[in-house]
Design a protein that fits this description.
alpha+beta; 2 domains; 3-stranded antiparallel sheet; 3 helices; 38% helix
Length: 118
């Protein structure tokens, strides 16, 4: 099922059009303003990776670039990236669980800072 993206020349918003086949005629209309002055965009493609290639990409040391284990937001971004690579195996609510864990870590950190002995 082909998916095409267009940018409206009037309001500059992006609109996605799904068709049933490549040969189907597409008459794009802006989903924001209803304009018809649309320019076709070059879309990103999705490539199905094997489990082995997903795990190899996570094991690559360059995937840790920018990770600061002392910064919860940095850890959260990395965990979500790992979750995307793992796909369904990570679980349906993986991102929500990461956010919840980061919030709990922040609250624990805030509570712990004032109670430390000097």
């Amino acid at each position: 099922m082909p998916i095409y993206e267009y940018r409206c020349a009037d309001c500059r918003k992006k609109t996605t059009v799904v068709t049933l086949s490549v040969s189907a005629a597409v008459d794009p209309v802006c989903s924001c303003c209803g304009g018809r002055n649309m320019a076709k965009l070059v879309s990103r493609i999705a490539i199905k990776k094997s489990e082995e290639s997903r795990l190899e990409s996570l094991a690559d040391p360059s995937s840790l670039t920018g990770l600061d284990e002392n910064d919860p937001k940095s850890v959260s971004r990395w965990m979500k990236k790992m979750g995307r690579e793992m796909g369904e195996e990570a679980g349906e609510n993986f991102n929500e669980e990461v956010d919840k864990a980061m919030e709990e870590a922040e609250l624990e950190k805030e509570g712990g800072e004032g109670s430390e002995d000097d």
